[in-house]
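Lab notebook, bench 4. Still working through the backlog of constructs that have no structural model yet. Next entry is a single chain of 43 residues. Request: give me the structure tokens for it.
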Amino acid sequence: MELGEIGRRVDIEGVNTNYLDVGDGPNVILLHGSGPGVTAYAN
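Model written out:
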């Protein structure tokens, strides 16, 4: 099983955001503040 990162973009009620679709498990939402952003979760 390959777990490559797939970046996606979604517009929900006029708010655009990016997310990563990774793996086959249940959905998990991780919110980050200032700093390195989503790349911090890769570490």
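Notes after review: Strands lie at 6-12, 15-21. The two ends are 20 Å apart (CA to CA). Flag for follow-up if needed.
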